Amino acid sequence: MAASPSSPEQNDFREYARRWLQENAPPPPPERLPMSPLEIMTVGQRNYLQDWQGQCHAAGLIGCDYPQSYGGGGHTNFQPIANQELGHARVPFMINIVGLSMAAPTILKHGSEEQKRRFIPGALSGGEIWCQGFSEPGAGSDMANQQTMAVAEGDNWIVNGHKVWTTLGHFARWMILIARTSRHHKYDGLTYFLAPIAGHPGVTVRPLVKMTGESGFNEVLFEDAVIPDSHRLDDIGKGWAVAMTTLTYERGAAESAGGTGGQSSDPAQGLIELARETQRNGLCAAADPVTRDALMQRVIAMEGLRQSARRARVPGLCDHPMRLPLQQKLLSSENHQANARLGVEIAGAASTLYKLDPNAPRQGYWPLSYMASYGNTIAAGTNEIQRNILGERVLGLAKSK
Amino acid sequence: MAASPSSPEQNDFREYARRWLQENAPPPPPERLPMSPLEIMTVGQRNYLQDWQGQCHAAGLIGCDYPQSYGGGGHTNFQPIANQELGHARVPFMINIVGLSMAAPTILKHGSEEQKRRFIPGALSGGEIWCQGFSEPGAGSDMANQQTMAVAEGDNWIVNGHKVWTTLGHFARWMILIARTSRHHKYDGLTYFLAPIAGHPGVTVRPLVKMTGESGFNEVLFEDAVIPDSHRLDDIGKGWAVAMTTLTYERGAAESAGGTGGQSSDPAQGLIELARETQRNGLCAAADPVTRDALMQRVIAMEGLRQSARRARVPGLCDHPMRLPLQQKLLSSENHQANARLGVEIAGAASTLYKLDPNAPRQGYWPLSYMASYGNTIAAGTNEIQRNILGERVLGLAKSK
Amino acid sequence: MTSEDRAPVDFGFGEEEEMLRDLARKFLDERIPVETLRQLVAPSPVPVYEQGEPPAWDRSVWEDLVELGWAGLAVEEKEGGAGVSMVGIAALVEEVGRHALPSPLLACLACSLVLRSADSEVARRRLGQIAQGTPAALAITPGDGSWEPERSDIQARRVAGELTLDGTAHFVQDALKADFFVVTARLNDKLLLCTLPADAPGLSVEQNHIHDLTRDQATLRFRQVRVSPSSVVTDDGAEVLRRAWPSLLVLASADLCGSSEWQLQATVEYAKNRKQFDRPLGFFQAVKHPLVNAMVEIDRARSLLYHAASCIDAASVEAEKASRMAKSAASDAGAFISDRSVQLHGGIGFTWESDVHIFFKRSLHGQVLWGDGIHHRKKLAEILIDRDG
Amino acid sequence: MTSEDRAPVDFGFGEEEEMLRDLARKFLDERIPVETLRQLVAPSPVPVYEQGEPPAWDRSVWEDLVELGWAGLAVEEKEGGAGVSMVGIAALVEEVGRHALPSPLLACLACSLVLRSADSEVARRRLGQIAQGTPAALAITPGDGSWEPERSDIQARRVAGELTLDGTAHFVQDALKADFFVVTARLNDKLLLCTLPADAPGLSVEQNHIHDLTRDQATLRFRQVRVSPSSVVTDDGAEVLRRAWPSLLVLASADLCGSSEWQLQATVEYAKNRKQFDRPLGFFQAVKHPLVNAMVEIDRARSLLYHAASCIDAASVEAEKASRMAKSAASDAGAFISDRSVQLHGGIGFTWESDVHIFFKRSLHGQVLWGDGIHHRKKLAEILIDRDG
């Protein structure tokens, strides 16, 4: 009953990953990189990051736990190790966030053999960038209220509709798309597609500007766009269930599903560093007990999230199979927000400074990250809706709608 | 436009009140007094407190702002001064809390001349103790869902029903009672009565025990109890509106409506004293910055409540006439709870001790007060319902029911 | 915990104050409704955020404000101002915050309140200029993250009867709109308070890039800047600022209360009109209850604001405590409604097109200005716990 | 922030641990369902609260637990125990908390974990006694509000080869159920760790009046109490307690996680069945969302709990940090669900008749036991900020 340490293979892999990252750290970017994949605005940024993900994939640090036939490494539980090392190495993040954390795991679970072979390798290597088409302007938080229609015509689907919040849409080759294939059933009338975007006839991508002044997300219009039936994922009418898989893997679970490692892997450490560098009324913020307590609350919340992701994989310690997975989106987004908010508070007067100001702490990361964090607490089902889902599906309480 | 100080009359009155309280502080009680009127259990406690309220009333410190014809002092804005001085003097509280803070102001607003002359003097002097009959076992938070029926029979009403949460019911001469006089209208089917309790045929009072192990509240059963129509307050079917008056005056507004002064008038000061006396890991809790921040949050919340009561009387600074009054119940109960909770946290290990333990800080006030505080956040419309009311009546949001 | 003996029960908010406030609301509603504001300060993120242009403001609005006498609100009548009570100023500044007005008004009020507490000939002359519409800004903040005005990163030296300043003033609010600055500098063991024209030789005004689109902020660098004797307000600047400090906190709190109320009402309107799951958003308690909580926090801050202002008017010793309470409550209320205003607006609240972010950023700036909630609670604890009230 | 290199991915929670936990749940469900518990500890408030009787416990349940080997869970097999991993113990103690079991079990586990880390002959003898069912309790807490075990208010003196104790041990948990105590005392500049029978001459056990109906607590007064050489465990008690400390925090956290989960589920059941405004309570987001928030907090605490336990099993240097995180999270989760469980039960939750208060009080006691959330965050900050992890 003694604790079993990591396997020798895992130890070797960690050693390998660490060495590789030391030896292959990328050159400085040609232009300033954004905080996260959500704000990639220029082709220069894209090329640089796409190249870096490709190298990591080729080195076996991304997709480690996917089968080799789909471009993966064929290992088990290597990805969390790779992610830890990517985090420690403070290298750039992976650009293909939607591909890695949403598309690939969903296709692995619901796709046909052909679909897996066609789509997963490009998602892992970053060669094909993915975006997500779950949100619509009229749908609000009610994700099941999709109005984008897909009508069957021979072996094709004719798609018309309007998607918003489309992160990376301006660079995307593919979109994971939920569309309505029947008006008669709210949930059972939805079907999931792997929709072509870049250069596809009938598809228009328009950038939107966030409250931070940055772009990176878009609206996407479908006007009689043709999608072959071979790009349908799982059965007609199963779109809601497939989308639930996607949302389950998003973020937290991404740890085991492709890796989004990079510089922001330990925000609590970043906050502690900020506090060490910041003077508040002539004293170091890291010496202020009220700030220290707030920092430790953040440390505990972040560690709790990591340990919950670990516990989610131990069935004997989970009363309800969806109890932890369904918390991930809620908690990762609110933790991110709370971390950033604390960063703003610690930075104090200097939090007023925008990233171009030379005195902005960490290039203005904290206030920008704080504002950007609302993207995550709002998109893909607001956190209010996430709480409904948890209350209803896990606790069994009556529906609030 | 310079600030006008208190009037000379008010200054004189403050001086008088202070001196009277110095010279007339009551003797030590014959037995341990409870924390508040909500836990008065014995006849000895009642007699002592009733006597004290009578003296204060006779001295002109209670009911100062009521007309003399109803047993009051006939002044304006003397009561807040009396309450401040009662608070500073740390004398016992007023026993007739329901009479002072709910019954008297409601009767003053809605009663006939006869009713005012009959009922207000006894409420002010404490000679006639009042209880409240707004809550029923099946009604939950839905106060309009009253099931107690009053049926007209000649000049009388025949009342049948079951009231709970009846603080002081076991000593009460009168109850402010809402009963249903029509099944056809939910709100307009309610009527407000001044119901005889002690010794009245058809009325049974049964004590209930709270989670603290203390009694002081009751259930009251009406079985064909006869109430003369002269004890009806305002019109038939106006019960809901009258009850809203009662709830508006409850607590916070009580400051201007009769006074419930006494030892707990400045809980924030009590918390600071507790922190000064408490060691945490060998250090004074009052020197711990995290505790200090929490204490100041409480100080600010309490001062905010006092200043809001003041602002509520300046129409030019109130956008909506009910915006501040409707917050009083919510805020006073939640402040009380948060204060008590902080007291528990500061007391630390010693918070485990019950009031009979000789080492319990301040006779176990904080944990007992914390548990008792749920009475206020639950009774008379849970605070969840209070938030609905504020959202709907003040902000104009859609009804949540 | 406080005594109200000296301050009037109605905070001294009388007819005159109410009329002033109502006029302000009407004027600002007409001249800078939110659509106008958005077109003015946020037509596109590029000019301010990428090209570093100063945030826009409407000089014609400012000229009309001066005409209305607002620049001299805190200047005594005998110096050419309106001599309005602090309670009246608080009420007017609430309206300024509610409209997120970009203007030198708050900086002018702040300077007036500091100069007024100095009671010197130089101060009176400057007060007269402000009342006539000459914009001024306060340059009193050091770079160590302290908002308390006891320190300065500027060194004054007196050499051969000539006074010169060297050093830096940080976080100077609305500096780019100012014609002159009110500056503190260390002079031996005293704190010198003086005024300097914005174009004084040796003084450079470096614009900060900031998030807030409705103010500007700058770093002022002093290199052997000469101060003429007629510009020295006092060498007891520490005491002058200590006396004026509560009123600066009242200004900042009032601005926050106003912007918070706008955020609350805008979000309430959205929750009334927007439907989800076939019901208005406001039906859902996850929307309704946070809005009620925000209202409660805003009301707490407003009540403490008027209490603080009335304590200042009554020259009460409670003023410092009351103003720290007000700023702590106003900062926290601002943070809470800012958060919920974006979240409950959903996707639209997160976009540049929405008005919400303009107020979000003004509030975020205001929450920290002159010290955030934690800071003021810390100072309050020193009074209430260590000095026993 | 932590390294998991040495601890297994599945926390080492294997079949054996799962079987132990499931058996525990079944046994406790049968022997002490909540109705039985209420009749046992809360038939009326009078005996415990007014007459000061010790809270009741069921000795026959305890005898059966001993029979099942629970008393020796933390005792190595070679000393007659079951030698279960800390992860297994955490899982079992969660069940104990979920049933609010009144028994000497937690005190016995705590004593075992301390004695086990001492590795002396005396310790081994005592461990064997505990495994056989002799109840013991830890008397290591001074009166200054400190839960950290470095200090003691008991002075040991060695006079003519004879060791005697004078002083007081405070907040001794389940002391009235114990046959012997594990005691710390100052001896010169060392911390002596010894054991003493509950009826040792000169030792008086003064029951505390406490709120919790499912434990007892006492103050132990020592007046020239003689300690025989065969009772001295070690004179390096400070180091022994430092090593055992994370495991004591795991016990307290596990008990809190269990009681919190009971409170959550009981409130969820109530919200499913109780109707208001013609809908089940749980329809309302003001009920649903706080319950979800409680679930999230409980899950955070549970995940940190098993992380801490697995770090102890792996003898990882992370154990101290992990256990302080677990206790902080478990205390805060306990406070939150305790609050909501009473509030959302409405009137009935506030009465003595309800089961809710029994768990509320056990949780309130547990939140502070061995240090509350603020305390452990303070200690954690010393590691992560001052010592850099």
Structural write-up:
The complex is a heterotetramer, with 2 copies of chain A (401 residues) and 2 copies of chain C (389 residues). Chain A folds into 3 domains: 8-128, Butyryl-Coa Dehydrogenase, subunit A, domain 1, CATH 1.10.540; 132-244, Butyryl-CoA Dehydrogenase, subunit A, domain 2; 267-394, Butyryl-CoA Dehydrogenase, subunit A, domain 3, CATH 1.20.140.10. In chain A, 40% of the residues lie in helices and 14% in strands. Chain A contains 11 helices and 10 strands. In chain A, the strands form 3 sheets. Chain A has a 4-stranded mixed β-sheet. A 4-stranded antiparallel β-sheet of chain A has the order 2-3-7-6, with no helix packed on it. In chain A, strands 9-10 form a two-stranded antiparallel ribbon. In chain A, α1 packs parallel to α3. The longest helix of chain A has 23 residues, at 289-311. Chain A starts with 7 loop residues before the first helix and ends in a 7-residue tail after the last helix. Chain C has 3 domains: 9-133, Acyl-CoA dehydrogenase/oxidase, N-terminal domain (Butyryl-Coa Dehydrogenase, subunit A, domain 1, Orthogonal Bundle); 138-236, Butyryl-CoA Dehydrogenase, subunit A, domain 2 (Beta Barrel); 238-388, Butyryl-CoA Dehydrogenase, subunit A, domain 3, CATH 1.20.140. Helices cover 50% and strands 16% of the residues of chain C. In chain C, the strands form 3 sheets. Chain C has a 4-stranded mixed β-sheet with strand order 1-4-5-8, covered by helices on one side. In chain C, strands 2-3-7-6 form a 4-stranded antiparallel β-sheet, with no helix packed on it. The longest helix of chain C has 37 residues, at 237-273. In chain C, α5 runs antiparallel to α9 (285-313), α6 runs antiparallel to α7 (121-131) and α8 (237-273) packs antiparallel against α11 (356-368). In chain C, a hairpin with a 2-residue loop joins β9 (275-276) and β10. The model of chain C has no long low-confidence stretch (mean pLDDT 95). Classes of the chains: A alpha+beta (401), C alpha+beta (389). Chains A and D meet through α7, α8 and α11 of A and α1, α8, β10, α9 and α10 of D.
